[in-house]
């Protein structure tokens, strides 16, 4: 019978083999992207993905693996393959994004959700120069001035809704939206030294996360709350104190930057708490036809009944799916509204170009804020009839 050390050594070797195989699979994904570029075929083939998952589920069951386990695992593999192919094609179409170094501006100090989102989006760059800003206007100015190549701005949250200040700033800037990403907001209880929940008597945190975790915190009424200017400041305070009696509320990834570990997670009242970020740059980018794209427009309609309805009918007639519609006051024009619209289509597609030709006469002003790859890769769904 093998010893525990021998079993662990075999697992370690298997893990190394799995990583090597995943790396090889990614290399093959790039070969697929090169082929699709030559043939002008779309990145995703949902029918093939469905067939792949059904076959893998069958093979997995024969090996004692559940359908759920195989599906979850390969959803991640397929997502990585799609994003790898998208990134390859986009780099060829936009040589400026193929550099190894870049710079980014974001709101808040190191460890803020904006900084974590920026790191996630720009993770393909070997070196990133980060610039912390104290407000959204500074992020915009840093990119407009050329001091930073990119700016990362939160645009909406599943819990608190749209970030209106960002929408208002986008009315005035000449920057283009060149990317998007959705970042999960998961609040954790972070500590600097090994301890137990029962030992915590002081909790540092920004008022907003504390409010978002009110139900959990109500179960621990003896813990004293200390407000901080940001979650990063709270984590830095706990790091400095290094006490078993204090904790911070923040993200696990942010905590790692301060040497903190999580002793409780999933604290938010609303479990599905996500923030959507946009990425802005001085120049627009080209999105190749094979890559799923979004286009963001800003417009003001003519002042008569049904004007907005006419705009929406244009999109319907060209089978363009609108994914977001937001209205904001026009600065300096009381009682007039500016509409922000996200549509799931490439700006240079035939359908979108025809729609724009019809939209211009229906609007008083119309501006394209950007066309960019859609970063959200929807999991492949399998119809029950296809399952063995």
TrEMBL record:
InterPro entries recorded: ACT-like_dom_sf, ACT_dom, Chor_mutase/pphenate_deHydtase, Chorismate_II_sf, CM_dom_sf, CM_II_prokaryot, CM_P_1, Preph_deHydtase
The keyword Transcription is assigned to this record = no
Which residues are in the ACT domain?
A: 296-373
Gene coding for it: pheA
Q: Which residues form the Chorismate mutase domain?
A: 1-89
> Which Pfam families does its entry note?
CM_2, PDT
Renumbered to this chain, the signal peptide range is none
Spell out the subcellular localization from the entry.
Cytoplasm
Record SMART domains: CM_2 (SM00830)
What is the protein's given name? Bifunctional chorismate mutase/prephenate dehydratase
Q: Which Gene3D superfamilies match?
A: 3.30.70.260, Chorismate mutase, Periplasmic binding protein-like II
Keywords, sorted A to Z: Amino-acid biosynthesis, Aromatic amino acid biosynthesis, Cytoplasm, Isomerase, Lyase, Multifunctional enzyme, Phenylalanine biosynthesis
Which pathway does the UniProt entry assign to this protein?
Answer: Metabolic intermediate biosynthesis; prephenate biosynthesis; prephenate from chorismate: step 1/1; Amino-acid biosynthesis; L-phenylalanine biosynthesis; phenylpyruvate from prephenate: step 1/1
Q: Which reaction does it catalyse?
A: chorismate = prephenate; prephenate + H(+) = 3-phenylpyruvate + CO2 + H2O
